[in-house]
C-alpha cells in the first residue's frame, strides 16, 4: 500500500470502522506473539534493496 493510500485509510472518516478493527487486531496477544515484524521488514528490504533509494532520487530530480 502506498503512503498516499495509507494516509487516507488512517485519516479519512470512511475508514473509521477499519481503524478500530486494525487496532483491535494489533492489540491481541496472539497477533503480537505471532507477527514477525523484523522478519517481514528484513525480507522486503532484501527483496527490494534499492527501491527506497530510487524513490528518494526520483523525488529529488523533480
Description:
The chain is built from five helices and no strands. It has about 60 residues and is mainly alpha-helical. The longest helix has 12 residues, at about 15-25. It starts with a helix and ends with a helix. The model has no long low-confidence stretch (mean pLDDT about 90).
pLDDT under 50 segments (min length 5)?
none
Mean pLDDT equals: 90
**Beta-strand fraction estimate:** under 5%
* Alpha-beta content class: mainly alpha
Query: What summary fits the major beta sheet?
Result: none
Helix content: over 70%
Give the count of helical stretches: 5
Number of strands: 0
First and last CA, distance? 22 Å
Total discrete domains = 1
List the secondary-structure elements in sequence, H or E. HHHHH
Rg calculated over all Cα atoms = 16 Å
Overall geometry comes to flat
Key traits:
single chain, 62 residues, mainly alpha, 5 helices, 79% helix, flat
Amino acid at each position: 500500500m502506498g503512503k498516499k493510500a495509507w494516509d487516507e485509510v488512517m485519516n479519512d472518516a470512511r475508514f473509521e470502522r477499519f481503524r478500530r478493527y486494525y487496532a483491535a487486531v494489533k492489540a491481541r496477544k496472539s497477533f503480537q506473539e505471532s507477527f514477525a515484524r523484523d522478519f517481514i521488514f528484513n525480507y522486503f528490504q532484501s527483496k527490494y534493496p534499492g527501491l527506497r533509494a530510487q524513490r528518494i532520487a526520483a523525488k529529488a530530480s523533480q
